[in-house]
Amino acid sequence: MNDYGKSVLEQYELEFTNVRRGRGCLILDGAEGQTYRLAEYSGSKAHLELEQAILNDLWQDGNLLVERCIPNRAGCLYSLNREQTGYVLRYFVEGNECSTASQVDLCNAMKALAQFHLRMRKFRCAQITQKEGFAGMPLYEEYGRHLRELHRVSAYLRRKKKKNHLERRMEETIQSVIRQGKEALEALEGTSYRQIYDQCVAEGRICHGRYHYHHVRFSEKGTVLTGLEHCCVQVQIVDIYQFLRKAMEKCGWSVSVGEQLLEAYETILPLSAEERQILACMLQFPEKYYKQVNYYYNTRKTWISAKSLEKLEKAVCQQIQRATFAETIAKPWKNNAF
Prior knowledge:
Layout lengths: L15 E7 L2 E6 L4 E6 L4 H17 L3 E2 L12 E2 L5 E6 L4 E2 L5 H18 L18 H21 L5 H25 L3 H11 L2 E2 L8 E4 L2 E4 L6 E2 L3 H14 L4 H12 L6 H12 L2 H11 L8 H31 L2
């Protein structure tokens, strides 16, 4: 975020008394006592209109606090500065960010996600019927792409004669990880994910798109949900996976913590047996390892930092923990499926 964003403030019918920096944004105090947040926006007009419709719906529902967009004088939800960079001004709700060190915070964040999902199952918007640009990529396509890239990197490493420590370790582990990825994809194909995905697209069912603990705050007035600029039409279990993955990395993939988080979600919105199976498949897929390999393959290789090897080793270790966590979490689901 740079100071150029300040130039768009004159496009609003508001007076500001103070400006301070936030995470990737500017926090502004209004003359009337309201606080606002100004951040860059690079998405489409249609997507921002969809997001605003969702925010208005959540605001009217009242169970979750949200930061709605504020139109400028021209009635547009985003404003361009002199460099033609887009900015969006939103209401800002102060609060404490969800802490991964607090199981209470994590459980409350999962309850907030369930409330969001439940509300979105009733949400209807004319823009969703157009579908174009709003549907997230199906998992079987995403995983297939990731596996093909892992195969390309494996072939590249075999051809490479001189290898550094990172490349040798990557060559030692990549085939095992590819097998795990294939098994996860085959297991996913054995579920009804395709039918569920098609149904979600047909219904226009909204998924947060990037539900992490950074996007949940707790204020005196309630739980604040942010980050909806990433919203899309997708199977909602993807949100649970994203939050669970980030939280479990911080909690050492503790099975007891994971069970508590899922139980917190299910106090509001129970998961079906198929959704649980899909979640287990997602947890088994080696996403963390893939990201490290992808970063290596798509950057210059003239110098490899020790940090890269450390991250790869961590991804290998976490993949074992992820698989164990997925298997353990899935056991009661399998037993209850009959």
